Amino acid sequence: MGTDSPFLLAAVSLLSALHMGYLARRVGWSRMAHKVLPPSVTGPPQFERTFRAHQNCVECYPVFLVTLWTCGMFFSELTAAAVGLVYIIARQIYFNGYVKSTKKRLPGFYLTLAVFVTLSLLGLIGILRGILHKYLHIHL
Amino acid sequence: MGTDSPFLLAAVSLLSALHMGYLARRVGWSRMAHKVLPPSVTGPPQFERTFRAHQNCVECYPVFLVTLWTCGMFFSELTAAAVGLVYIIARQIYFNGYVKSTKKRLPGFYLTLAVFVTLSLLGLIGILRGILHKYLHIHL
Amino acid sequence: MGTDSPFLLAAVSLLSALHMGYLARRVGWSRMAHKVLPPSVTGPPQFERTFRAHQNCVECYPVFLVTLWTCGMFFSELTAAAVGLVYIIARQIYFNGYVKSTKKRLPGFYLTLAVFVTLSLLGLIGILRGILHKYLHIHL
């Protein structure tokens, strides 16, 4: 592996985990503001958008962690950590936009997509290079 | 740990992450086909089955990653990677089946279960062997 | 990293993954008891509370894994593993409470929160210490 003490990846992962906790809290606040008691997940449109925004982040989060660490361990830790910070910002833009209107979720959504494409491609390059080297003794 | 450059585990993880992205896309296509606008998650039965099929994959995914890496790092990387590929296929069969009918989700569901049992058991063997060796100096 | 064969973290992770499988099973049993056929996720209040209890565990699980491993790799493996066991108990208390009534989910919820705060803070200490050492050559 490229790095044996991936402090930067760990720092971004921990930050993203805290960010997920903050977004969950936002749903809780929206419940209170719109008087939607658990376990109900339906209510005024703004609450439902807030709830779905969080759900989408929940769906994306493990995919983010896999691509972050793949890129960070096999391509470049610094690059992965930097793009990982962009991910957190992208999710915040997505969430804030979606709370306002369904259409306003799109800019943050496209930025999220760009992060996934970047991390996946760089991770793929790193893995292929590693497999060629380890199993076929081809040095690129 | 058994392996210090787990390229195969990383490759299967990255592939599974891309597969999760593809399944999310399928939900988006189903939204368009059935005219179900976000944030709504209710609509014609086929859309609701597609939505639930994806949700089930979201629920399973972190469990898969944990069992994949446990088996791969502490038992055998090659075995874990091969079974991990079966997982992706199992989820695809499950998803395609569930879209058609609730009952047709079952074959893919049972194959998923078989993957979890296999990865967990092998991972457990590897961990127990490791704990006996590291903490009790018993070599199996 | 603090540990190169994190068997205890792997053991707690595997146990938590099996616990997630058990909670998913509980939702399945609740479906049968209340005759709620998939893909429906609405029904009698007790089913809906059971369903939401599981969903909340799904939302929390990747956050748990990140904080567990951050604390375990960069602060102390034994501490993280012990607090990780408390997490599994906390989620069980939360789940059982939520099935009974919405209010009874709170003790398990607060215990979960305490676990997250503990793992995050210790992980943060470990990461900051590591970054100071690796990048700024400051030894604490």
Automatic annotation (TrEMBL), chains A, B, C:
The keyword Translocase does not apply. It is found in: Endoplasmic reticulum membrane. It comes from the Eukaryota. The chain crosses the membrane at residues 63-88, 109-132. GO terms for biological process: leukotriene biosynthetic process. SUPFAM superfamilies: MAPEG domain-like. It comes from Dicentrarchus labrax. One of its GO terms (cellular component) is nuclear envelope. Keywords: Endoplasmic reticulum, Leukotriene biosynthesis, Membrane, Transmembrane, Transmembrane helix. Gene3D superfamilies: Membrane associated eicosanoid/glutathione metabolism-like domain (1.20.120.550). Pfam families: MAPEG. One of its GO terms (molecular function) is enzyme activator activity. This is Microsomal glutathione S-transferase 2. It is a multi-pass membrane protein. PANTHER family: MICROSOMAL GLUTATHIONE S-TRANSFERASE (PTHR10250), MICROSOMAL GLUTATHIONE S-TRANSFERASE 2 (PTHR10250:SF13).
